Amino acid sequence: MLAADALDRSLRAGLKHWRIGPAAAAGFLADNGETRVLDDSTILLGVGRCDAVTTGSIRVAAARLIRVLERMKVSSATITLGENSLPKAADRGALGRGFGEGIALANWRVKDFDGSATTRKPAQGSLSIHATDRDFFKGISEGLALGESANFARALAATPPNICTPAWIATEARRLAKSMRLKCRVISFADAQRLGMGGLVNVGQGSDAKPCMVVLDWTPAKTTRASKDIHLCLIGKTLTYDTGGYSLKVNNGMKGMKYDKCGGTAVLGAMHAIATAKLPVRVTAILPAAENMVSGNAYRPDDIITLYNGVTVEVTNTDAEGRLVLADALAWACRTVKPTHIVDMATLTGGVVTALGSWCAGLMCNDADLRGRIERAGEQSGDRVWHLPLWQEHREHMRSQHADLINSNPSRLAHPLMGGAFLSYFVDDKIPWAHVDIAGVASTDSTTDLFVVPGPTGFGVRLLYDFVSAFA
Known about the structure:
The chain is an alpha/beta fold. Helices cover about 35% and strands about 15% of the residues.
């Protein structure tokens, strides 16, 4: 790899090693991700100006490189860092991790549904990556592993609703648990009815594929002094399909609603990463899974339902269903799991997409230390978040005249904040809690450097991994 300001010096110093002359690199500026094939065994990869190299930029460079390696049908590559290609004070392990993530993320596509008419070429086989710098290579290995976990989540997210039902999610969670030394239990529809989980029950009862709640536990063999009293809880909204219910999505608004489970798939991907790395932190994951459908049994606007903690909710919009299933999961976690911290992740509001676009997730949090931890994890992972307020006025905005709460206020005031304000009523005040709204970042409609095909991004997997690992 070469930084732009080190290009001439590296070429002069490396003529013998690379078996090239000065003219062979004419026009090569070493811009980030720029490549030049010198011969059958040597490729130059630019990473931009040395002082501008970041983990994020190096992800992009690696993503562009993997396409060149694929076209050349390369099965093994060794990464050599050019002289002064990286900042002297740079964390080479972190940059290597970014490089590995870029390779893994850019080398994935939906492939499980290719039929007899496909024009897509099959995968060429495995690629072996090495590096001459030990720290950089160690980082690459970590990045490839995290990329694999994110791609695991992307594959789940891309699975269509005729296959991916709540029961299918439970089966996949059990399979993950078996392969990764996790414990798995499933709260069935009948169990949820018995427990009084009115949110999960009502949202999912209109479908023939009844709802359930999946609970995964990671208990490490050993903890550290810092993590011995820590028990984290990760909760992911897992709406396997969202028609909007009787508040039906219109104007093709239903297209892509298989991605309404991306909060849950991100949590599953994070558990895959946590167990793979054997992080010495106890973690419980909860996935309230449901399909929001229209039928004679479906819940309606004007219904009043009672949730797990006894709070009554007047349904004003059946398309504001995610907060109802999350509310039961949050209340159940507080009472049963008794964690030290809770983070929920959900594709919750269109408002957060309007507010923040596709560049970061929205973060609402009741604890300054927890907020800082998530923000730092966002910067480290590249899954960035932006803090949004959660004031008492926002909570009062969710009050009902006929019940305790409404699930959606018809007023568009503070629309990106309504979901988090509603959820705050289902978390114990003494438990640090954060709500991460990934509606704008869970999937992409267009091709990018990291995401070669439109679809799920796996956002949140690396964010949650870095959040958990910091406790160790």
